[in-house]
Design brief:
With 184 residues, the protein is mainly β. Helix content is 0%, strand content 50%.
Length: 184
C-alpha cells in the first residue's frame, strides 16, 4: 500500500516471505526490528522515498496473531507513522523510521488504528483500547467474543462521542469516550 507524506512516498507491505538473518531475502531493509525469542507471525516492511530515491526502510517482525496491511492498519500523524503489527502498535519517526515506541495493545492481534479526539483507538481482536500519542493506554474494553464479524459489517464505528462495536456472535456494544457502556 502506498501513501504520501509531505514530499515522501511511503510504501507499507506485508512481507511474509522475509526471513530474519537470511541473505536470500527478496527485499532487503536498512533496519530489522524484532525481539529475540519470538516467532514472527507478522512482518511489515516500510520504505520511505523522496521521488525515486529511498531514504530509509525497515521491517518490523512481531508475534501474536497475524496482522495484515490495509487502510486501517496505520495512521500518519504529526511526522510519525503509527502501525499495527501482530499484537503491537509501533510509532516511528518520518522519514528516518526511528522507533519512538512500541506497545503490546491486544492479547491477540491489533487489527486497526483510528484517530479519535486527538488520540487513537486501537481495534484489537480481543480489546478496543484508547491510547495517547505516546502509546499510553487510557482504557480498554473487551466483549463476549472477538471484535471481528461474520457478516462483513464493520466491527467498530465511531460517531462523535459514541463508539459502536460488534463481536463475532453478533452482539453490539456502545461505549463512550471513556470506554464505559452506554445506551444507544
Amino acid at each position: 500500500m502506498k501513501t504520501g507524506y509531505k514530499n515522501y512516498t511511503i510504501e507499507i507491505t506485508d512481507d511474509r516471505n522475509y526471513t530474519i538473518g537470511s541473505v536470500d531475502n527478496i527485499t532487503s531493509y536498512n533496519q530489522v526490528v524484532f525481539d529475540e525469542g519470538i516467532i514472527p507471525t507478522s512482518q511489515h516492511g516500510i520504505s520511505v522515498k523522496n521521488h525515486e530515491d529511498e531514504i530509509n526502510s525497515i521491517i518490523i517482525c512481531e508475534g501474536g496473531g497475524a496482522s495484515t496491511i490495509h487502510e486501517r492498519s496505520f495512521i500518519i500523524d504529526d511526522g510519525k507513522i503509527f502501525l499495527c503489527c501482530g499484537d503491537h502498535v509501533y510509532c516511528l519517526e518520518l522519514p528516518s523510521l526511528t522507533v519512538v515506541w512500541k506497545r503490546k495493545l491486544d492479547p491477540a492481534t491489533c487489527v486497526g488504528i483510528y484517530e479519535y479526539k486527538n488520540e487513537f483507538l486501537v481495534h484489537g481482536e480481543l480489546e478496543i483500547s484508547r491510547i495517547d500519542k505516546q502509546g499510553n493506554k487510557r482504557w480498554d474494553f473487551s466483549a463476549r467474543d472477538i471484535f471481528v464479524t461474520q457478516d462483513g459489517k464493520e466491527s467498530i464505528e465511531i460517531k462523535e462521542d459514541r463508539i459502536k462495536l460488534r463481536d463475532w456472535e453478533g452482539y453490539e456494544y456502545v461505549i463512550d469516550e471513556n470506554g464505559r457502556g452506554v445506551g444507544d
